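Hello forum,

I keep getting stuck at the same step: I have a sequence, I want structure tokens, and every attempt I make locally crashes halfway through. Rather than fight my setup again tonight, could one of you with a working pipeline run this one for me? It's a single chain of 194 residues.
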Amino acid sequence: MSPDPALKAQTIALVGLMGVGKSTIGRRLAQALELPFCDADHEIEAAAGRTIPEIFAERGEAEFRLGERRVIARLLHEPPHVLATGGGAFMNPETRAAIGAKGISVWLKAPLDVLLKRIRRRADRPLLATDDPEATLNKLIAERYPVYALADITVESRDVPHEAIVGEIVALLCSHEMLVRGRSGQAGVEARGS
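Reply #2:
Ran it on my machine without issues. Output:
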């Protein structure tokens, strides 16, 4: 069964900390909605001709964030798609406003224990290249969760099949006021879902 056409009218931006599954869930969500998928981190690497750890090492976080903001602004002007953003992208007020103007933001929220288990699988996280990654992650949670909470929709990322998380996102998107009424406030497609 084809997805509701209203679900394909806007970019859906996934936000949240590293390890919540933005790329993995994003690919499956894009497949379910029959939309293209885009990973902002991959686009940043392609634009810079370097990996994110290399950008951090050679140019610093401030330069990375500047490039990240430019790349996401460009991606938001492309046709609707599912966009996995980097963990710090939504912290930038300009990026947050651009996502709000051009799409619907979905915060994939996960508790510390889930994040720790997932991030230990990869060693390419520049912000966690510290003596105490758990303390760093706790600090990031304290700083970023209040801002992530500004997202249009929040879904708990937890250890369940990815399809379950995708199903929850789709159901919440179907009932989301901006999707139901459209950005102009006009009556639109009725919400359908669980």
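Confidence is low (pLDDT under 50) at residues 183-194. If your local run keeps crashing, start a new thread with the error log.
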